[in-house]
Amino acid sequence: MDPNHIRNFAIIAHIDHGKSTLSDRLLELTGSLTSREMQAQVLDAMDLERERGITIKAHTVRMMYKAEDGQTYQLNLIDTPGHVDFSYEVSRSLASCEGALLVVDASQGVEAQTLANAYLAISHGLEIIPIINKIDLPSADIERTKEMIEKSVGLPASDAIPVSAKTGQNVEQILEAVVHLLPPPKGDPEAPLQALIFDSWFDPYRGVIVLARVVSGTLRKGMKIKVMSNGKVFDIESMGVMTPKPVELTELSAGEVGFFVATIKNVADTKVGDTITDAERPCAEPLPGFEDIKSMVFAGLYTVDSHEHALLRDALEKLRLNDSSFTFEPESSVALGFGFRCGFLGLLHLEIIQERLEREYNLDLITTAPGVRYKITLTDGKVVEVDNPSRWPDPSEIEQIEEPVITAKILTNEEYVGGILKLVEDKRGRQQNFEYVSETRVMLTYELPLNEIVLDFYDRLKSVSRGYASLDYHLAGTWVSPMVKMDILVSGEPVDALSIIVHRDFAYERGKALVSKMRELIPRQMFEVAIQAAIGSKIVARETVTAMRKNVIAKCYGGDISRKRKLLEKQKEGKKRMKRIGKVDIPQEAFLAVLKVGEE
Ligand SMILES: Nc1nc2c(ncn2[C@@H]2O[C@H](COP(=O)(O)OP(=O)(O)OP(=O)(O)O)[C@@H](O)[C@H]2O)c(=O)[nH]1
């Protein structure tokens, strides 16, 4: 297709501002099936089952639109993941576009992710069309939202399009704006092939499926392609676009986006951000910006039942086929037995993987407290990276410890600033900026140690702001900090899986809070259980779980049988997630007590 008739764009928005609803509306207007219709159809037609892997993730859609100028345009809507954990993927999706629709909820206004995504789009040189959504709501304030876009994002908003994705009001104006305001792609279809991978996943029926933007040259069926970062060569077996129904094509030329299936067995061979070229006529340079993204958050995963260890390994291997951004390696714990040390992009990523293991693979898991990776210089000059407290070097051998630090942007209403400032100070934050982005909204910029964020930051931010704060962050560097390893002793025995790394000046406080939380979480046993927090041989806090006196059932005085049963069931359920350590049963929550310390 003539590149002048192609437009590639993304929709960027804060969560819940209406991205999916608006996409569906655009699909409807251009006569494509909506993704919901598509899914219903897929379920109806069993012979389409093979294509399911594609359709479910088919968020990159080609639409054909006949504009008011009488011309037909090819509009490629490229989906971007919505969460900060996946910001690298967002950046690669944006790199595949020339423009973006910035959707802002007219009743909520600009939020932290609106800003973060808008800045990212601006830094990629994209043309941005502001869209003010949900104007059907009584609380919608179009003028105020425009002001916020101008003031905080710094984009002219007088021409922002007010729409309701729900009722469809004004949505067709967006299509005209896409055609007239966004630039067409550039690129020579005759040049050597350069295509950017912006998503890839494993489909059980078809193998690895890659979404790519052809930047220059032409990608053809049957072609031998080379992945630039690793030099691997594959044959393209099939290719096409989603409309959102997959439609097979024989070529994609400069400016176009689409999917291809090649003889690729492992998603790790086609990482997001990598460049594909023609193996026989390679391009000189890969596209800029490829990064092998590293895990930032680490935790141990163990099965409650040690016989399920092999199942966990198989499940992790399967998940890894589809997600090259998480890592795992075997580790063992005196307390928990054999497990895996896993690395994730962030906390949400950890939660997603954990939930899939439990739901899809039916595993009962114990997760240890998440932590970060420290760079430690030893007294003999060696530098080691440690993400597992059990590998923490002896303090006498440590010269210097560097911890990862993020820049966090928190957007909130004025009245919650006090509470948030206290929270970030508690979390060792250092203020970078304090700025009013409208009369009542404040943007705080802080440097914070990542280790404090992975503990309980989100939940506490939510509670001090009653949900009226949004957070966005990116890795900013490291601080040299006096970190120490804190051990937890249960009945005098250190439980290795409970050890955490904390800042020395906060260790006493943290230890006290932690053992007191553990006391609540560890059920009474037939004997007294001491819980202690220690740094080296120094005990910094102690609590005692007193011995059980009576049978639980004795608590149900009246003898109401249904209550009794409920209590027993509850106990049984609690048991499932217990791990017996020495003589003491420790529930799953206790391993994560450090996450719950801030809770009331
Ligand atoms: N009243 C009203 N509600 C809307 C409108 N657009 C979307 N919504 C509602 O807002 C909620 C969020 O919309 P989604 O389209 O799921 O938002 P999203 O940004 O895709 O959300 P995530 O995928 O979770 O990031 C849904 O309940 C929608 O029905 C609108 O124009 N008016």
Automatic annotation (TrEMBL):
Any idea where the Tr-type G domain is? 4-186
Please give one Gene Ontology molecular function term for this protein: ribosome binding
Q: Which Gene Ontology cellular-component terms appear in the entry?
A: plasma membrane
Protein's job: Required for accurate and efficient protein synthesis under certain stress conditions. May act as a fidelity factor of the translation reaction, by catalyzing a one-codon backward translocation of tRNAs on improperly translocated ribosomes. Back-translocation proceeds from a post-translocation (POST) complex to a pre-translocation (PRE) complex, thus giving elongation factor G a second chance to translocate the tRNAs correctly. Binds to ribosomes in a GTP-dependent manner.
Q: Which InterPro entries match?
A: EF-4 (IPR006297), EFG_III/V (IPR035647), EFG_V-like (IPR000640), EFTu-like_2 (IPR004161), LepA_C_sf (IPR038363), LepA_CTD (IPR013842), LepA_IV (IPR035654), P-loop_NTPase (IPR027417)
The protein's name: Elongation factor 4
Q: What is the lineage of its organism?
A: Bacteria, Pseudomonadati, Acidobacteriota, Terriglobia, Terriglobales
This protein's source sits in the domain of life called Bacteria
Q: From the Swiss-Prot or TrEMBL record, state where the protein is found.
A: Cell membrane
Query: HAMAP family given for it?
Result: LepA
Catalytic activity reported: GTP + H2O = GDP + phosphate + H(+)
Supply one GO BP term: positive regulation of translation
A Pfam family name for this chain? GTP_EFTU
The EC number(s) this enzyme carries: 3.6.5.n1
Q: Which PANTHER family match?
A: TRANSLATION FACTOR GUF1 HOMOLOG, CHLOROPLASTIC (PTHR43512:SF4), TRANSLATION FACTOR GUF1-RELATED (PTHR43512)
Name the residues that bind GTP: 16-21, 133-136
